[in-house]
Amino acid sequence: MHFLTLVFLAVFCGAVAGLPTDNTSTLAPRDCSSEINSFNIARRERRGHVKRSSNINMRALTCVAAPEVAVEDYTRPPLRQNLREDQSGLEMTLDVGVIDVTTCQPIPNVMVEVWSPNALGAYGSTFLRGAFTSASNGVAEFQTLFPGYTSDGANHVNIMVHTSNSMSGTVSHAGQVFFTDRWTDVVSMTSPYSQNVNNRVLNAQDSNYATANSEGYNAIVDIQSIHDDWPEGVIGYITVGVNPQRKVEVPR
After folding, report:
1. DSSP code for 220
2. What residues are paired with 239 via a beta bridge?
C-alpha cells in the first residue's frame, strides 16, 4: 500500500512543563525559506526522497522557534541512536533537524533527546528513549518506532534540545511533535497497534497540539515510506527551530 508523501515542516513521570526562564525577547518571524529549503532538500536527497516525490511542498519556511509544550514521562535517557530494544511495531527513522532561529543555520553538536510510547501506548523505563548529538549538518537521527497513542493527548513524540553536546547542559527547547490523524489511523489498524486500548485523542482535541503548532511553527512530522512501501518502514522528518540563548526549565 502506498500513500502520497505527507510533507510538513517542522519531540519524571507525569506531565512536565517546559517553561522559558530567561528574558530573551521574541524574535520576529522572517523569511529564511532559501536556507531552510536547502536544509530540508539535502536531508531528503541523501535518501532519494526528492527524486521519488513529485509533490514536495515545504511549509513554514520562516525562522520561528518551536513553542514550548509540556512533555510526558521524562527520565534521563541512554546515549544511543537505536531506541527499539525488543519492541515491535512500524520501524521509523526519525530525522531531527535543528535550526538556530537567530541565524537560520543548522546547529551541529547539540544534544537532542527523544522518547515516546510503544505500539500499545505505554511508556517504558528504557525502550524508545534515547539521546544523541546533532551531526555536522545539524541532524540528529534515531532508529525508533512509530508511536502508539496514549489517552493523554494526540499521538506524538517528546523532544528536548540542549545548547551543548551534554545532557547536563542548558535546555533550549522542550516539546512535542505530532503526526497527521490519517497516519495514526492507518498504522493503528495494523498489529500490534490494533491491540491499543487507550482512548484516541485527535489532533484538534489536544491543546498541546494547538500550542505546538502556533506562532507560525509546524510541529507535524513529515512521514515518507521506504521504497514506496510503508509497512517496510518509514522516515520521519521534523525541523526544530531553537533560540540557543533561550533557557527552558525542565524538572529533573
Report:
1. B
2. 97
